[in-house]
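ZP: hey, is the adenosine-5'-triphosphate complex queued? I don't see it on the tracker
AM: it wasn't, my bad. submitting now with these inputs:
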Amino acid sequence: MSSVTISDLSLSFGPVKVLKDLNLEVNEGEFVVLLGPSGCGKSTLLNCIAGLLDVSAGQIFIDGKNVTWDEPKDRGIGMVFQSYALYPQMSVEKNLSFGLRVAGLPKHEVHERVSRAAEILQIQSLLKRKPAALSGGQRQRVAIGRALVRDVNVFLFDEPLSNLDAKLRTDLRVELKRLHQRLGNTMIYVTHDQIEALTLADRIAIMKDGLIQQLDTPHGVYNNPTNRFVAGFIGSPGMNFLNGTLENGLENGSNNEKDQWNFATPDLRIPLNGYAFKQAPVAGQPVEIGIRPENIVLGEAVASAAVQLTVDTEIVEPMGADTVLWTNIAGNNLTIRTDSESDVKPGDKLSVGINPSRASLFAQNGDRL
Ligand SMILES: Nc1ncnc2c1ncn2[C@@H]1O[C@H](COP(=O)(O)OP(=O)(O)OP(=O)(O)O)[C@@H](O)[C@H]1O
Ligand SMILES: [Mg+2]
């Protein structure tokens, strides 16, 4: 049984349709990340699940129960927002226990739940402090703690780390992952940070214009993007795209196997050996090939690659653990990720290799071929 089911959900603000017949199934205990560009409807979807927005059409089920028109407090969810919104005049302990006291829980139970959340989040030593005396990361932990004490099955997070500096984000990200592994709750987490999405998610839902483009594992969205949008959105530096046409081996005389397909431009030809076509290829069809920067090899690996090319190096960017080369081939930009030991310099002509089995092909309408 799935823990959260969204069925044909639509939501409009006035004449603007923000969510369009959206469907999503989140399994029990699963960590699903909603990822997409600003304004695509991530927060809107999360707020619908939380019950903070009335839907225009469609249904929402939590743990099998239709909660579409239930009050937020009756949905069995805990929510953490981007801004911590703690009560400034209350201590951390009071902030954590406030909702429980309002709900009339017995004192010992309130105490038990607050202690447990404080222990999980490692904030026991901060319980007597006021929010003003906490760092950003500590405040955000308290905010997570407020959701935690509610003892719910489903947690909703809306960019909980985006107000924090880079180091703290990384630390808290790991803690969130640990928290999920320990508690096993269902989590739906909104971000526009792809690293957060790739590292935290069991599955990522990539959204654009109020629709889910792909719901898949981090490995799936990265290596088998379902369309050109997903391919270009995930990955940094981004995937390389080249425009060309599909060519059948029989026609260009390069060999006589009719299953031999090539990607061709006036200046280069890439045999597509080992590429798993999702749709039947058509000779002459205009296509775009997408190649990840790390799937272009240098040095000794070039000889054993399926395709060898020569590129002109324009810019060398050392990134610490690796180095990014911005190169050019026949007027097309080609970004290459290589190890930090490489001694390539701007102006170098480089021999590089490509293994097309790891590439992606897209038809003109953007769908994966
Ligand atoms: N209360 C509102 N009234 C009218 N339009 C709204 C309202 N709230 C959001 N919108 C619009 O709905 C669309 C989706 O907004 P939403 O906040 O869900 O985006 P998002 O994906 O969370 O973006 P971000 O990454 O910037 O937070 C946007 O175009 C936004 O301008
Ligand atoms: Mg948002």
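AM: back. The chain is about 25% helix and 35% strand.
ZP: great, adding it to the tracker
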